[in-house]
Amino acid sequence: MRTEGIAAIVTGGGSGLGAATGRALAAAGAKVALLDLNEAGAAAVAAEIGGIGIGCDVSDARSAEAAVAHAAEAHGPARILVNCAGVVNAGRIVGRKGPLDLAAYARVIEINLIGTFNLMRLVAAGALPLDPLEGGERGVIVSTASVAAYEGQIGQAAYASSKAAVVGLTLPAAREFAPAGIRVCAIAPGLFETPMMKGLPQEVQDSLGAAVPFPPRLGRPEEYAALVMAILANPMMNGEVIRLDGALRMQAK
Protein backbone atom coordinates (compact mmCIF):
# COMPACT_ATOMS: atom_id res chain seq x y z
CA MET A 1 0.00 0.00 0.00
CA ARG A 2 1.23 3.44 -0.84
CA THR A 3 1.03 5.57 2.29
CA GLU A 4 1.07 9.04 0.75
CA GLY A 5 -2.08 10.84 1.89
CA ILE A 6 -3.49 7.75 3.62
CA ALA A 7 -5.08 8.06 7.07
CA ALA A 8 -3.37 5.95 9.74
CA ILE A 9 -4.03 5.24 13.41
CA VAL A 10 -1.29 4.08 15.79
CA THR A 11 -2.15 3.03 19.33
CA GLY A 12 0.42 3.44 22.07
CA GLY A 13 1.68 6.30 19.93
CA GLY A 14 2.99 8.45 22.76
CA SER A 15 6.25 6.53 23.19
CA GLY A 16 8.33 3.52 22.21
CA LEU A 17 7.28 1.36 19.27
CA GLY A 18 4.15 3.40 18.61
CA ALA A 19 5.96 6.73 18.49
CA ALA A 20 8.61 5.34 16.12
CA THR A 21 5.89 3.92 13.89
CA GLY A 22 4.05 7.23 13.84
CA ARG A 23 7.24 9.00 12.78
CA ALA A 24 7.88 6.49 9.99
CA LEU A 25 4.33 6.76 8.68
CA ALA A 26 4.42 10.55 8.73
CA ALA A 27 7.76 10.57 6.92
CA ALA A 28 6.12 8.44 4.22
CA GLY A 29 3.31 10.95 3.78
CA ALA A 30 0.56 9.35 5.86
CA LYS A 31 -1.91 11.38 7.90
CA VAL A 32 -1.22 10.04 11.37
CA ALA A 33 -3.41 9.93 14.48
CA LEU A 34 -1.61 8.76 17.61
CA LEU A 35 -3.78 7.22 20.33
CA ASP A 36 -2.49 6.82 23.87
CA LEU A 37 -3.80 6.76 27.41
CA ASN A 38 -1.09 9.38 27.98
CA GLU A 39 -2.69 12.09 25.86
CA ALA A 40 0.12 14.55 26.55
CA GLY A 41 2.69 12.08 25.26
CA ALA A 42 0.68 11.42 22.12
CA ALA A 43 0.19 15.14 21.55
CA ALA A 44 3.92 15.81 21.90
CA VAL A 45 4.85 13.22 19.27
CA ALA A 46 1.98 14.38 17.05
CA ALA A 47 3.21 17.96 17.17
CA GLU A 48 6.63 16.75 16.08
CA ILE A 49 5.33 14.87 13.02
CA GLY A 50 2.36 17.01 12.02
CA GLY A 51 -0.25 14.52 13.16
CA ILE A 52 -2.87 14.55 15.90
CA GLY A 53 -2.70 13.07 19.40
CA ILE A 54 -5.83 11.63 21.00
CA GLY A 55 -6.34 10.34 24.52
CA CYS A 56 -7.74 6.81 24.41
CA ASP A 57 -8.20 3.79 26.63
CA VAL A 58 -8.01 1.05 24.00
CA SER A 59 -9.72 -1.46 26.29
CA ASP A 60 -12.85 0.71 26.59
CA ALA A 61 -15.42 0.58 23.79
CA ARG A 62 -16.68 4.15 24.12
CA SER A 63 -13.22 5.64 24.47
CA ALA A 64 -11.98 3.83 21.36
CA GLU A 65 -15.11 4.66 19.36
CA ALA A 66 -14.71 8.33 20.21
CA ALA A 67 -11.00 8.31 19.34
CA VAL A 68 -11.54 6.61 15.96
CA ALA A 69 -14.35 9.07 15.17
CA HIS A 70 -12.09 11.99 16.12
CA ALA A 71 -9.34 10.69 13.85
CA ALA A 72 -11.81 10.22 10.98
CA GLU A 73 -13.08 13.78 11.34
CA ALA A 74 -9.52 15.06 11.03
CA HIS A 75 -8.10 12.74 8.36
CA GLY A 76 -10.93 10.66 6.94
CA PRO A 77 -11.48 6.96 7.70
CA ALA A 78 -8.24 5.15 8.51
CA ARG A 79 -6.95 2.54 6.09
CA ILE A 80 -3.92 1.76 8.28
CA LEU A 81 -3.99 0.59 11.90
CA VAL A 82 -0.91 -0.30 13.93
CA ASN A 83 -1.68 -1.66 17.40
CA CYS A 84 1.24 -0.89 19.74
CA ALA A 85 -0.57 -0.23 23.02
CA GLY A 86 0.33 -2.79 25.66
CA VAL A 87 1.35 -3.41 29.25
CA VAL A 88 3.42 -5.94 31.18
CA ASN A 89 2.56 -7.22 34.65
CA ALA A 90 5.02 -9.80 35.95
CA GLY A 91 3.89 -12.30 38.55
CA ARG A 92 3.74 -16.02 39.13
CA ILE A 93 0.37 -17.73 38.88
CA VAL A 94 0.87 -18.79 42.49
CA GLY A 95 3.47 -16.75 44.34
CA ARG A 96 4.65 -16.52 47.91
CA LYS A 97 1.56 -14.55 48.86
CA GLY A 98 -0.83 -16.91 47.10
CA PRO A 99 -2.62 -16.87 43.74
CA LEU A 100 -2.03 -14.00 41.33
CA ASP A 101 -4.64 -11.27 41.73
CA LEU A 102 -7.26 -11.94 39.08
CA ALA A 103 -7.78 -8.24 38.41
CA ALA A 104 -4.08 -7.87 37.61
CA TYR A 105 -4.31 -10.69 35.08
CA ALA A 106 -7.50 -9.27 33.57
CA ARG A 107 -5.94 -5.82 33.11
CA VAL A 108 -3.19 -7.25 30.90
CA ILE A 109 -5.74 -9.19 28.82
CA GLU A 110 -8.00 -6.14 28.52
CA ILE A 111 -5.27 -3.86 27.18
CA ASN A 112 -3.11 -6.24 25.14
CA LEU A 113 -5.82 -8.45 23.63
CA ILE A 114 -9.18 -6.73 23.96
CA GLY A 115 -7.59 -3.38 23.11
CA THR A 116 -6.10 -4.87 19.94
CA PHE A 117 -9.44 -6.42 18.95
CA ASN A 118 -11.32 -3.24 19.85
CA LEU A 119 -9.36 -1.04 17.46
CA MET A 120 -9.27 -3.76 14.81
CA ARG A 121 -13.05 -4.02 14.71
CA LEU A 122 -13.55 -0.26 14.57
CA VAL A 123 -10.93 0.54 11.94
CA ALA A 124 -11.96 -2.42 9.78
CA ALA A 125 -15.60 -1.32 9.96
CA GLY A 126 -14.57 2.11 8.70
CA ALA A 127 -12.36 0.75 5.92
CA LEU A 128 -14.78 -1.83 4.51
CA PRO A 129 -17.04 0.72 2.73
CA LEU A 130 -14.09 2.61 1.19
CA ASP A 131 -13.21 2.37 -2.48
CA PRO A 132 -10.37 -0.06 -3.14
CA LEU A 133 -6.93 1.33 -3.89
CA GLU A 134 -4.49 0.08 -6.50
CA GLY A 135 -4.35 -3.70 -6.38
CA GLY A 136 -7.72 -3.92 -4.64
CA GLU A 137 -6.48 -3.05 -1.15
CA ARG A 138 -8.73 -1.23 1.28
CA GLY A 139 -6.57 -1.35 4.38
CA VAL A 140 -3.80 -2.94 6.42
CA ILE A 141 -3.84 -3.82 10.13
CA VAL A 142 -0.62 -4.63 12.00
CA SER A 143 -0.81 -5.80 15.62
CA THR A 144 1.97 -6.31 18.15
CA ALA A 145 2.47 -9.78 19.58
CA SER A 146 5.71 -10.86 21.31
CA VAL A 147 8.22 -13.69 21.37
CA ALA A 148 6.67 -14.35 24.80
CA ALA A 149 3.68 -15.74 22.88
CA TYR A 150 5.93 -18.70 22.00
CA GLU A 151 8.46 -18.83 24.85
CA GLY A 152 6.73 -17.22 27.79
CA GLN A 153 8.92 -17.15 30.86
CA ILE A 154 8.02 -17.98 34.44
CA GLY A 155 6.19 -14.95 35.79
CA GLN A 156 4.91 -13.94 32.33
CA ALA A 157 1.64 -15.89 32.36
CA ALA A 158 -0.55 -12.84 31.84
CA TYR A 159 1.65 -11.18 29.24
CA ALA A 160 2.45 -14.37 27.33
CA SER A 161 -1.16 -15.51 27.14
CA SER A 162 -2.33 -12.07 25.99
CA LYS A 163 0.26 -12.02 23.21
CA ALA A 164 -0.43 -15.62 22.23
CA ALA A 165 -4.05 -14.57 21.77
CA VAL A 166 -2.93 -11.74 19.47
CA VAL A 167 -1.12 -14.39 17.40
CA GLY A 168 -4.30 -16.47 17.33
CA LEU A 169 -6.38 -13.48 16.26
CA THR A 170 -4.25 -12.65 13.24
CA LEU A 171 -5.09 -15.44 10.78
CA PRO A 172 -8.89 -15.58 11.27
CA ALA A 173 -9.03 -11.80 10.95
CA ALA A 174 -6.95 -11.91 7.76
CA ARG A 175 -9.22 -14.60 6.33
CA GLU A 176 -12.38 -12.70 7.24
CA PHE A 177 -11.23 -9.42 5.71
CA ALA A 178 -9.46 -10.90 2.67
CA PRO A 179 -12.47 -10.63 0.32
CA ALA A 180 -12.56 -6.88 1.05
CA GLY A 181 -8.84 -6.39 0.49
CA ILE A 182 -7.92 -5.65 4.11
CA ARG A 183 -4.68 -7.37 5.15
CA VAL A 184 -3.89 -8.36 8.74
CA CYS A 185 -0.43 -9.17 10.10
CA ALA A 186 1.34 -9.09 13.43
CA ILE A 187 4.90 -8.51 14.59
CA ALA A 188 6.39 -10.48 17.49
CA PRO A 189 9.26 -8.36 18.85
CA GLY A 190 11.97 -9.71 21.11
CA LEU A 191 13.82 -7.44 23.54
CA PHE A 192 13.41 -3.83 22.47
CA GLU A 193 14.32 -0.40 23.81
CA THR A 194 10.94 0.63 25.20
CA PRO A 195 10.16 2.98 28.11
CA MET A 196 9.73 -0.06 30.35
CA MET A 197 13.11 -1.45 29.33
CA LYS A 198 14.83 1.91 29.68
CA GLY A 199 13.63 2.05 33.28
CA LEU A 200 15.92 -0.84 34.16
CA PRO A 201 19.51 -0.27 35.33
CA GLN A 202 21.96 0.05 32.44
CA GLU A 203 23.82 -3.10 33.44
CA VAL A 204 20.56 -5.06 33.25
CA GLN A 205 19.80 -3.62 29.81
CA ASP A 206 23.29 -4.54 28.63
CA SER A 207 22.93 -8.07 29.98
CA LEU A 208 19.59 -8.57 28.25
CA GLY A 209 20.93 -7.20 24.98
CA ALA A 210 23.95 -9.50 25.14
CA ALA A 211 21.58 -12.50 25.22
CA VAL A 212 20.45 -11.72 21.66
CA PRO A 213 22.49 -13.84 19.18
CA PHE A 214 22.81 -11.11 16.55
CA PRO A 215 22.90 -8.24 16.75
CA PRO A 216 23.85 -8.63 20.44
CA ARG A 217 21.84 -5.66 21.68
CA LEU A 218 18.29 -4.53 22.34
CA GLY A 219 16.15 -3.85 19.30
CA ARG A 220 15.45 -0.25 18.38
CA PRO A 221 11.92 1.11 17.93
CA GLU A 222 12.92 2.34 14.48
CA GLU A 223 13.60 -1.28 13.47
CA TYR A 224 10.07 -2.25 14.48
CA ALA A 225 8.72 0.70 12.49
CA ALA A 226 10.78 -0.35 9.45
CA LEU A 227 9.10 -3.76 9.50
CA VAL A 228 5.67 -2.12 9.71
CA MET A 229 6.51 -0.11 6.61
CA ALA A 230 7.74 -3.25 4.81
CA ILE A 231 4.44 -5.02 5.60
CA LEU A 232 2.48 -2.06 4.26
CA ALA A 233 4.52 -2.07 1.05
CA ASN A 234 4.24 -5.80 0.31
CA PRO A 235 0.72 -6.93 -0.66
CA MET A 236 1.60 -10.61 -0.23
CA MET A 237 2.19 -10.13 3.49
CA ASN A 238 -1.09 -11.29 4.97
CA GLY A 239 -2.16 -13.50 7.86
CA GLU A 240 1.41 -13.77 9.09
CA VAL A 241 3.12 -13.20 12.46
CA ILE A 242 6.73 -12.12 11.97
CA ARG A 243 9.34 -12.53 14.70
CA LEU A 244 11.69 -9.57 15.07
CA ASP A 245 14.14 -10.82 17.66
CA GLY A 246 17.71 -11.28 16.38
CA ALA A 247 17.28 -15.08 16.68
CA LEU A 248 16.52 -14.84 20.40
CA ARG A 249 14.75 -17.77 22.05
CA MET A 250 13.67 -16.99 25.59
CA GLN A 251 14.69 -19.34 28.40
CA ALA A 252 12.30 -20.45 31.12
CA LYS A 253 13.51 -17.69 33.44
UniProtKB/TrEMBL annotation:
Belongs to the short-chain dehydrogenases/reductases (SDR) family. This is Short-chain dehydrogenase/reductase SDR. GO terms for molecular function: oxidoreductase activity. It comes from the Bacteria. Transmembrane segments: none annotated. Keywords: Oxidoreductase. InterPro entries: NAD(P)-bd_dom_sf (IPR036291), Sc_DH/Rdtase_CS (IPR020904), SDR_fam (IPR002347).
